[in-house]
UniProtKB/TrEMBL annotation:
This is DUF302 domain-containing protein. Residues 1-19 form the signal peptide. It comes from the Bacteria. Gene3D superfamilies: TT1751-like domain (3.30.310.70). Residues 66-127 form the DUF302 domain. Keywords: Signal. Pfam families: DUF302. InterPro entries: DUF302, TT1751-like_sf.
């Protein structure tokens, strides 16, 4: 029964993500940011999406004193965490460089995770939002599929 529930949830998430008419992929999980991030990092490693950089944005803002500087205007959304990571896959990166180096704006990829009330949302600018006439467009679409699949499958890991 639990496995069937996971399959149904995955299908619903996939449909909701595909239905969105947005250049931003967005999916939410009822789990803390640390769990989602740990699962994503493990899945990315399996999928050869090398994480080259991470940042705890909200903590960095606080460290820089922005919470005091902005006062009541700081984090009005009430997020409890904002993390970002940059990842790269050598094959896709090389293909995109060779096909249309201007499209390297989409590769390496950047993913942002936000948390509020125990729900973590994963945000990712879709490379398929690139100009369709770019010679790198098909590689960007394949990269997007690889990344979104890894994100979705990461929450199936235990």
């Amino acid at each position: 029964m639990c496995k069937m529930r996971k399959i149904l949830l995955a299908c619903l998430l996939t449909v909701s993500v595909w239905a969105a008419e947005s250049n931003v992929y967005k999916v939410s999980y009822n789990a803390p940011v640390d769990k989602v991030l740990d699962n994503m990092l493990a899945k990315f490693k399996q999928e050869m999406l090398v994480v080259v950089w991470q940042l705890d944005i909200l903590e960095e803002f606080k460290h820089k004193g922005l919470d005091k500087k902005f006062g009541e205007n700081f984090n009005k959304a009430g997020l409890t965490a904002v993390r970002t990571l940059v990842a790269c896959n050598g094959k896709f990166g090389n293909d995109i460089i060779n096909q249309d180096s201007d499209m390297m704006a989409y590769c390496p990829i950047r993913i942002t995770l936000t948390e509020k009330d125990g729900v973590t949302t994963v945000l990712y600018v879709r490379p398929s939002s690139a100009p369709r006439d770019s010679k790198a467009y098909q590689s960007l679409v394949k990269l997007e599929k690889k990344v979104t699949k890894a994100i979705e499958e990461s929450m199936e890991m235990e």
